[in-house]
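Our preliminary data section would be incomplete without showing what the modeling component actually yields. Below, a chain of 135 amino acids is followed by its predicted structure, encoded as tokens that our downstream tools consume directly.
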Amino acid sequence: MGGVNPYLKKPETKLPAKPYQVTFVQRGVTVTVDPAKLPYGHEGQPGSILDIALAHGVDLDHACGGVCACSTCHVIVRKGLASCNESSEDEEDQLDNAPGLTPQSRLGCQVVPDGTSDVEVEIPEWNRNLVREEH
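Predicted structure:
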């Protein structure tokens, strides 16, 4: 799915200049983000937590395809929030629909770390799709 929401202003982001790490706390997964490989895919803003998660096999629901039109990719940035872009009014409007908000809540499709510090992300339990098909 993925793409761009033509009705929203693109958030101001700064992509990292050097590698940094993102830890998805409950999954016990830490990945090193290589700035030369960004964006990894087409879901969310380039270099967003959603983009990073999906590229490294971390499932993060994103019903709208990462275009800031829902709140299913709600994450909590437990560490490194200061290295991320500011949330836009459009993002905050969507976050109002997510349960369990905290002051560190962001939409995974919109939050883009700049690489100046490592980041720890919590995916709220209500968001984790625990049903998996056997391979």
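Helices lie at 49-55, 89-95. The mean pLDDT is 90. Preliminary results of this kind motivate Aim 1 of the renewal.
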